[in-house]
Amino acid sequence: MSAFPGFGNGARIHSFSAGGVTMRVVIEGEGPDVVFIPGGDQTAEAYSQQFARLSESFRCISYDPRGAGETTSPPAPWTITDYARDCAAVIDAFCDGQTVVSGLSLGGLVTQQVAIDFPERVRLAIPMGTAACIDGFTRDWMQAEIDLRKAGITLPDSFLAPHYAPYAFPAKALHDPEFWAEIKPRYTARFAERDPEDLIAQWEACLEFDCREELRTCPVPFHVISFSEDVQTAPSMCKVVADLVPDGVLHEIPGLGHVSMVSHRPGMVAAKLREIIEGHPDS
Q: Which residues share a beta bridge with 24?
């Protein structure tokens, strides 16, 4: 069973190599380019519901990042700078000049780093569920997950969905019987099939990330999207990013959790993305 909903028939899949990394790249639609960067443990399919709602107006591009899906790369450790370099290579290969870059979670960290390291490639950055530096509860939780896997502990399948879904979706969604019946098998398959070494490598890259100083001089406009019920990256963490960057705006979408974009309320996220992109002066 797929961990994420699939793409439509109009999606085109490419294999692309740069800097020793071979990435699976998915493209759908016509119009201005928008590059979507997946979060931790996610493949390009995490954006399939956004593609379905936005590809009639935009050329939507996503890819499997290091440590997920069909992408192959040099051995870990990796840094968010490595991930940003991969994204810049995708932009150079598939986009016509500056583009909109958006990412969730780990992808939100990468979005920030791409804007910092490659501002000439980014006309608008939209990090979602993000942080300038991961600290507090989120840091302790992520480190505990890493330590558990380094100790060789394997979680039983019956534990996976009840453990990970509360970090992804709001309580009202989890207590909807129809939604839970849909999510439970998907989250079980997703984490049962997850390579522990890839999870460790991705999550450690997130914990090592700190771009607070670099954001202060980043010339790229930022529209930061937060979700009111996000346990992983609370709106207060997203606000730090929007406040640090010289041209930053914070948006908070009510009633959504960290991964509501994927299958809980994808239409609400797509509507906000459309509003931001079409409202940007260069659109």
A: 15
Residue type, 105: S
Quick one: how far is CA 247 from the chain centroid? 21
Instruction: List Cβ neighbours of 146 (8 Å cut-off, separation of 6 or more).
Output: 199, 200, 203, 204, 207
Q: Please state, for a pLDDT cut of 70, what percent of the chain lies above it.
A: 98
CB neighbours (10 Å) of residue 191?
A: 18
Residue 161 Cα distances to 189, 199, 202, 261, 268, angstroms: 9, 16, 20, 18, 24
For the stretch 187-204, pLDDT in tens is 999 899 889 999 999 999
Amino acid letter, residue 166 = P
pTM comes to 0.95
Distance of CA 74 to the CA centre of its chain: 21
- The whole-angstrom separation of Cα 239 and Cα 250 is 6
Residue 110: name the closest of 141, 152, 144, 80 by CA: 80
User: What gap in Å lies between CA 146 and CA 149, rounded to an integer?
Assistant: 5
**Nearest to residue 255, comparing CAs of 184, 175, 169?**
169
